[in-house]
């Protein structure tokens, strides 16, 4: 009796659940300490102490009817002002509270902006490898996902193919940098070229193409690399931000959209996003955590913990003979499968109690994603198994 | 550049915003203490002290990576078990954690279940007067809302018309008791008759019709009245619950769905609801507040405060000559407009600095909704204005 659309989703989600169940099965047989689960992007570094302090401070000093109550669908005015000012200080932008809409995480924000913009038959371009949920988010509004194939040299987007795939029907382009699953940060050079292509194509077709920047990993970067702020390169940019990773609050579902004045029909899009927040059933971003993040804008998780993980895992895997682009952000390694079939490789890894995700899930077969948001100790213990795994394959 | 669907929503939402702006304008001219805003269903009674205690207890004693982290899309297992047991204790049901899916409030839950069940062209029946958002929730999945006209005698649902309006395409029926906007509680007699009609029609058409019970006001009842638990009367019942009103936490967006084993295709619907939670962008209900409510199941807001408000407002308005069914729950009075045109009456009320909502917004013209979730003092101060308002109309 479930809806037609949901039938196939339920089927494919059973596959994911099967993997999850397999992990539980292995943990039962071998003990959880002997199973190396690198399959989930769940932050391992604890939320900074400021979060707890902010919660207690708010509960003790603010009006509780206001703290837990309804507010505008776009969020508390004062919180949005504080966020706008903070972005302006960091990136030299000129946003006000009007440009900020608080959302139920980045996933909620993406659904709000897609509901606001997309008509059935509109096209949305993504660059493989990409976060698989985009497929469903776009399908929620009956639009068509157009996939640009991966550039496996350095995992910067394939811009030549991108330009070819833009049509009159292209309504939006999703970018995600630092990237899930590759950990790659799109360079300023890439962003300038990408923006130039979009400007040219908008002119050619007389259309508006919105660049949707999904940025949950913005703060998780290493080696002092800078992540360009996209509204400065292209007017029709909309940012989807989340505190899930930057403050290790993924379960709290708190983030925001930035809809700049420079975007075409900005006021109308802001109004639409407000209504979409309401009618999709979000109503508003969780209220206490709106107030919490306003007090924690200068707080950050200890990124050096992830960096240490990255260095150990990357250096060791390369030493063993794995091939991988060194990630500059997020907490993923995207490793070339030593055999052609990445799903088969994940199955071989499972025999070593290693759980990783096939690149096929990200529209990039032949690779696997290793999430290193686990304890350093888990990585140390897993390394001999990674070595045995590649040695076995080589000796076959 | 916004989507076609959103264009009309943005237009009608500007009307609501205009009313809101009008309130702000009046407050500026006359001072906020002289404006009587009865337009919003935002709880005025503070969250019980147990909520704050639970938050601090959790932050001090539970693993923060778990408290703020991802979990299954359906929510923490232990929280769902505690909720299932609590429902079983109260209503003699036999739910387990499997039957409970934590949601981003009742609005999130309704969207999850509609995404799970509805195909385009399916019909969903509502009883006027009804909460206007249902219109949009159903339209999100391109299904058709079928409205049963109001029974203005006692605002129990019009069951004769209901029976006539059920067709082969009827996939779901929404009930909301205690009701927004009338405050009426559907009697057990009503529920038994409604269930009998549904059973008969399922048999006649060979279809499954799901009864969706939207229950944010379940705990806000007066005069010791009982609100029947609908899964006990009809197998294909799905409950959407929220803590927004019962614990005064509307901004926190926390609630749950109950999908009983007795519902046809229960397992499949549960799987679909899990996936829908994910792909609609909710991902999971806010994590800290899942843990909070598990510790606050026996806590309740002080309902006597609303009851005192109801008694004062109801008794006074009736004394002045207004006509109204005495509400047994929620925090609304649904009053007959002394003139035929309810929108015009709301405009006349505004001249007395009274803000109320026309029944037309709930598909029930000729009535107005007065939300008495305000302080007792506000009601006392507004009463002379309500009296002047009806006297003026009578003397015209």
Automatic annotation (TrEMBL), chains A, B:
Keyword annotations from UniProtKB, A to Z: Aminotransferase, Transferase
UniProt cofactor(s): pyridoxal 5'-phosphate
EC number of the protein: 2.6.1.-
EC class: transferase
Domain Aminotransferase class I/classII large: from-to ranges: 34-383
Molecular function GO labels: pyridoxal phosphate binding; transaminase activity
Pfam families: Aminotran_1_2
Source organism, top-level taxon: Bacteria
InterPro entries: Aminotransferase_I/II_large, NHTrfase_class1_PyrdxlP-BS, PyrdxlP-dep_Trfase, PyrdxlP-dep_Trfase_major, PyrdxlP-dep_Trfase_small
Native source organism of the sequence: Clostridium isatidis
Protein name, per record: Aminotransferase
Family label: Belongs to the class-I pyridoxal-phosphate-dependent aminotransferase family.
UniProt key word Transferase: yes
